[in-house]
Every structure is written in C-alpha cells, then in structure tokens.
Specification:
Blueprint: E1 2-5, E2 15-18, H1 21-24, E3 41-42, E4 46-49, E5 52-56, E6 63-64
Parallel strand pairs: 2-5
Antiparallel strand pairs: 1-2, 3-6, 4-5
C-alpha cells in the first residue's frame, strides 16, 4: 500500500509512505479509509528510493491521524 503525501506521482516533491503486504494486516481497516485531505503523522526512517523520500511503516503506531 502506498500513501503519497504532498503531491501525486510522478512529481518528485512528495513523500511516499509504504506498507508492504506482509505488514498490511497489522493495520486493519486503517488503510482502507479515505485518507484524502486528512492530516496524518508518520514515524520512521526516511530513505531515498529513485530520488523520492520514502518511509516504510511496519506498525500501526507509526501512523497517526
């Protein structure tokens, strides 16, 4: 699951938040809700992937509305 913050792809001025399939069930319905125009806070290590900053979420506590 990808959540793009700040801009839509292919824009480079965005932050990608990723939840990989093996961790998705930990988040329950949270990732199924409409996230458009909601304020979110994510916590994690920021890495560059193809020049785009990206945070991989592993635990629900790392995503707060």
């Amino acid at each position: 699951t990808w959540i793009e913050l700040g801009a839509k792809p292919p824009a480079k001025n965005r932050l990608s938040v990723v939840v990989w399939g093996h961790d998705r069930s930990k988040f329950g319905r949270t990732l199924s809700e409409d996230l458009v125009n909601r304020q979110v806070c994510v916590t994690g290590l920021i890495k560059l992937y193809d020049g785009i900053p990206e945070i991989t979420l592993k635990l629900p506590k790392d995503l707060v509305f």
